[in-house]
Write a structure and sequence with these properties.
The protein has 375 residues and is an alpha+beta fold. Helices cover 36% and strands 25% of the residues. It has nine helices and 14 strands. The longest helix has 38 residues, at 137-174. It is elongated and about 85 Å long.
Length: 375
């Protein structure tokens, strides 16, 4: 096989000359990720690659040489036979392709099918029909994920909004019947539920930005140890005993440039998980660490460990996926997915494992990076 290369003649004119191509560079159709089926001018299958055999559950030996409608008996979603309906060999000669669409294999399995009509000359008879097949399972997984997200959000929104609506309607209708203390209690509940809705909306926006690669990081100097200390104080103020937390900081720490709001979001999520789902002492270690980013020597590592039951070994690889909630239900199951997205947006890494005390241990490492105006 040869391809055309170019060179320049003495008079400056470009000359196109054939360049030999190594036959070993030709693509083997069996290496293609999508199914490929080719029928000749008589409608008989002359190519049926390995992916097509896998998708259709028809062997290459059984498909080759057979009429296309026999080797690949497709139907549309209304049960009509696809090749009879489209009539690629006897239909309009101006057609050059069939756009991708869902069709059914025998047994009802859906596949994505597209076709290309190859003619030796415009409006001439069909010389070759090239068909591509793609499994719909990846698309179905995405659709299921979106459906789960919608269902989760609807469920999480319903509870606080019902509470807000109920209390406000009650207050408006019977304001004079309640004491000031009762009014205050109901308004505090409404305020807390409004905060819950706000957090959920923020999570959804974060997921949208993470999935689209648009999560912005505004780097500023961050005192990681001080940030951890603030979160510990917040837990103590909300009723947790102070001796439940152990903060260990190894000095000197490198000067870290990160998004302080997003670092707070990561710390808040990890400490809340340790407090809510773990047991015993929650230990937070802040240490220098090798940078996860090439070209930088140091970074900052934060390790959050508890002494609870830990995470089952078989669940370790699912912790950072959407909707993972572990053995205890509650929450949206989106927090750790967002945490991973934030850490990776900083160029960092996050891992999960078993703590020395037997509980869960999360460790994230951020590169020292540079100010936003120098990045």
């Amino acid at each position: 096989m040869s391809v055309v290369g170019t060179s320049t003649a003495p008079d400056g004119q470009e000359v196109r000359a054939p360049v030999e191509q190594d036959p070993a560079d030709a693509i083997d159709p069996d290496q293609l990720p999508d199914g490929l089926v080719v029928a000749d001018e008589h409608g008989r299958v002359v190519r049926f690659n390995a992916a097509a055999a896998r998708i259709t559950a028809v062997s290459q030996a059984d498909a080759l040489g057979r009429p296309l409608e026999k080797a690949l008996p497709l139907e549309d979603l209304e049960g009509r036979r696809w090749w009879q309906l489209t009539d690629p060999y006897g239909g309009l000669a101006i057609r050059v392709r069939q756009p991708e669409r869902n069709l059914l294999l025998p047994g009802g399995r859906e596949v994505l099918v597209a076709a290309r009509y190859v003619r030796d000359e415009p409006l001439g008879p069909l010389h070759r029909l090239v068909v591509t097949l793609r499994d719909t399972e990846a698309r179905r997984r995405t659709e299921r994920s979106h459906a789960e997200l919608i269902a989760t959000v609807a469920h999480e929104l319903r509870s606080p909004l019902t509470s807000v609506k109920g209390f406000t309607a009650t207050l408006l209708a019977k304001w004079e019947r309640f004491t000031d203390e009762q009014k205050r209690l109901m308004l505090e509940t409404v305020d807390a539920d409004a905060d819950r809705v706000t957090r959920l909306i923020a999570e959804l926006l974060d997921i949208s930005r993470i999935d689209s690669g648009r999560l912005e990081v505004r780097r500023q100097p961050v005192d990681t140890a001080a940030a951890v200390g603030r979160h510990i104080q917040a837990h103590v103020a909300s009723g947790q005993p102070a001796d439940r937390f152990l903060l260990r900081v190894e000095h000197p720490l490198p000067a870290l440039w990160a998004d302080p709001d997003k670092v707070d979001q990561v710390l808040s999520n990890l400490l809340e998980n340790a407090v809510r789902h773990g047991a015993g002492t929650v230990t937070i270690d802040v240490t220098p660490a090798p940078s996860p980013r090439e070209g930088e020597e140091t970074g900052t590592s934060v390790t959050v460990s508890d002494e609870g039951p830990g995470i089952p070994e078989e669940s370790m690889n699912r912790v950072f996926t959407r909707f993972w909630r572990g053995s205890k239900r509650g929450g949206t199951g989106l927090g750790l997915y967002i945490v991973k997205g934030i850490v990776e947006a900083h160029g960092g890494t996050i891992t999960v494992g078993r703590a020395p005390g037997g509980g869960a241990q999360f460790r994230f490492t951020l590169p020292v990076s540079a100010p936003a105006y120098l990045a």
